[in-house]
Sequence to fold (257 residues):
Amino acid sequence: MRHAVERHEIVVHYQPIVNITVGSATQVEALVRWHRADELIPPLDFIPAAESSGLINTLGQAILELACSQVRDWLAGDEARSVAVNVSAVQLREPDFARDILTILAATGVDPRQLIIEVTESACLGSPRRVIEQLSHMRERGIRVALDDFGTGYSTLARLRELPVDIIKVDKSFIDEVKTGRENLPILNSIIDLGHTLGLHVTVEGVETATQARQLRRLGSDSMQGFYFGRPSPVEFLADMEWQATNAYRQLTPASH
Ligand code: C2E
Ligand code: CA
Ligand code: CA
Fold:
């Protein structure tokens, strides 16, 4: 894996995120893959090893550089657009992490206000002070922070107010419950309300059906992401993806109940 970066085997795919208020796909999430021989290896098969070996720091920088240079023109086309990049807990513990990110943004010409970094709840729990300082430093420069897989841990609920985050990404498991559209969704409803009470933007991920998307619109979610709107795809398909995701959103008919 050490040579994967030099050999240009690291590729990034992008998945559209639809902003409900705007009514279109204004964001993409960068998701890494390892193109080894003829295989496209998914991140969960190599990120954990990269984290335990420390290689994730180099790999994470390469991913950010690649993502920024690939979507720069798309971002430049509309200041409302943004790209979200996943960052692991190990990277956040690096003292120079925030500085390195800002250097990459400057080098690739991406406005910090168009970058979102996605961190998991557990990353914020690991070594709180240093992590929180890094996140705060980045936010001062305009970078937004999203709390990924929200709702899967249980300890940050009380601490959410203190964490320097702008967005919560509600884990797929919450929307998975929606099958017929007639379900009561007290937990999901409360999470969305809690997010709004704290002034946060709420994105729900793993939306696979029109029924689920309609429910989220009804519950007041701010953004949605999932296979219903589009699968992660190479950068060549960025414009198509944006169009398809926006179209999928506009085609949602009003809920029948
Ligand atoms: P994640 O950040 O929660 O990313 C969402 C994952 O759910 C992605 O899997 C995406 O393809 C998948 N997904 C999106 N919509 C749907 C849907 O509607 N249904 C279903 N079943 N799945 C959906 P992927 O690309 O395999 O990534 C898995 C995880 O690997 C990510 O979870 C993230 O934690 C990690 N990861 C991905 N890229 C990076 C990266 O560049 N750096 C780091 N540190 N971690 C990454
Ligand atoms: Ca993510
Ligand atoms: Ca997630």
Remarks:
- The pocket of calcium ion (ligand 3) is lined by residues 148-149, 169, 205 (CB under 6 Å).
- The chain has a mean pLDDT of 94.
- DSSP finds eleven helices and nine strands in the chain.
